[in-house]
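Q: Fold this one first, please.
A: Sequence and structure below.
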Amino acid sequence: MDAIAKPFGWLMLQFYNWTGNYGVAVILFALVVKLIMLPFQLKSKKSMMRMSRMTPRLKELEKKFGNDQARYQQEMNKLYKEEGVNPMSGCVWSLIPFPILIALYRAIRFPITTMMGVSAELMAEGGAIYEKLLELGWSAEALTARQRAYEQIFQSQFITEHFADFQGLSDKLVALKYNFLGMNLAETPNVAFWSWDSVTWGLIGLFLIPFISAGLSYLSMKITNAQNPQTEATNQSNKTMMLTMPLVSLWICFSMPGVMGIYWISQSVFSIVQETILNRVFNRQLDIEDADRIEREKAREAELEAKRQETERLKAEGATTANKNTSKKRQQAAAAQKEAERKAAEARAARAKRRAARGEVDDIPASQVGNRRYARGRAYVPDRYTNPDEAEEKTLAAAEESEKYAAEHPEEFDISDIEPIEADAADESEIPALTPADGEAEENDDSEPDAFDESDDADEADACPADEEAEPDFDDEDDESDDEDDEN
């Protein structure tokens, strides 16, 4: 702690040498600490104020996803990220003043060795300064039990009263006076100040310091919490802190020298001023940011509404075709499938060219359409309906031939580089991409079936056979009987 306390003590001493007043030096020290912390607290303050304004939106998320805590946490973190808010940003900076307070307490408690930087050997038994104190009549026995905890403060006061006698023992000794507004800040406030032999303004002032400190601490926390996000849990926590911290301040100021109370009061006053100014400045900035955000949301909603109305108009005119394959994954898969089809077509063309060069005739199955060998199915039989007796045998033979062909020409059926498309609702666009029907077929149009399509040609079952004969004539016997009836 000395590594932190000594720089603080040195700064306190510089302020004292500059002002000649111990209380003013403490106030200036508190101001410098506040100014050093200000750049770090600015970001934290703005983040906390943003969170405060996000409270209604967080409540909406809680209503929407309250039963699903994992989803609620996910959406809340997403909202924090979009708004640039860090919920933990204010926690670290709110804890930093406590180490500073502890370091300052050590510098105040040991003013000779920590603030002035006098060697501890000189203050120990046998040291020159310690022996001089005993020689001039100073005794620790004259101190009360509470005062003995601050023995070096009273040694410093004694040295100041007999400063000429300590000249030459150390060039670092300073005549330190603890008077401030008629109070001795080296003294500890007394709860029962009226029990002393003489009641002076100094004693009354010391008695009031803890209460002033507690009141300002409460006011500072109230102003700060007014701009922080309030939920049911945080609201209860803030109420507890607003009661606890002033009580802690009250206890500390009654337990330590009055100078600590002056520091606490100064910190509270500077915090109140800081919070008041920052609230006004950041509220203006956040009002502008909120107005811009609302305008962007309105513009986005207007754009979506215009698209929806245009879609409805095109639907009413029958001039739209839905294309749900708008996700990046589906587009990549469709592109990969097209590439595989292109490679298969090139492989078939190359094979046909080689066979033609050898004078061979490429067998074209009945299932082929264009350059797709099995567009109508791998087990396609043209006369399956007109010749049902042989349909089963021909179907099995066609399936066997297609399997054999696929095994001999795997390059035409290689789809290893096509990624499967998982059924994921998140991949679908909230609004399907609609394009006017201009005669162009979609990517998944039936006019271009996949090269590896294994359909059973159910469409063929609905079509009339091409070679089916005309409807037969009526029975001749019926015609003759009709003629006899007419004659009768």
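Q: Good. Now the second chain.
A: Here it is, same layout.
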Amino acid sequence: MAKIDELVVNFAVYEDANEYLGMAEATLPDLEYLAEEMSGAGIAGNVEEIIIGHLSAMTTTLNFRTVCKAAVRLLEPRTHKLDLRVAQQQMNNRTSETTITGVKHIMRVKPKKTALGKVAAASTADVSGEYATQYYAMYMDGEKVTEVDPLNFICIINGYDYLADVRKALGK
């Protein structure tokens, strides 16, 4: 049965079972592999090669409508474990039936910057926080499909652990 992914219906962000109300938008971290340019004998020019399982530093951005306790709490200089739950809408392209699928993003973050926004009558303040993301995992319909944990040499993409052999070679 073919399904067309359509849109995000809604989302919620939690820390320690507390829902962060007032959240306007979340920008998830980019997963960008480190790469090295290679040249030399047997190569006609330069080739860029990724380094298996090694990623650039990750950043998550959370936007709030106003200055709120959640934004201040996330400014505490400590590790925060966030659970971002998303309801996504899909359509069966044969029957036009609409279904909802769940996606969960688990992150361990530390605050880098909080922009307290602006103050204007009848307007949102547009408060935002940038967070260094040390750990990231994604679950689709309850199945872990991605886990990136640089501190523990874990890089699971689509169920395969690309750093298992590296951990073994290093005795970890």
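Q: Anything worth noting on the second one?
A: The chain has a mean pLDDT of 93.
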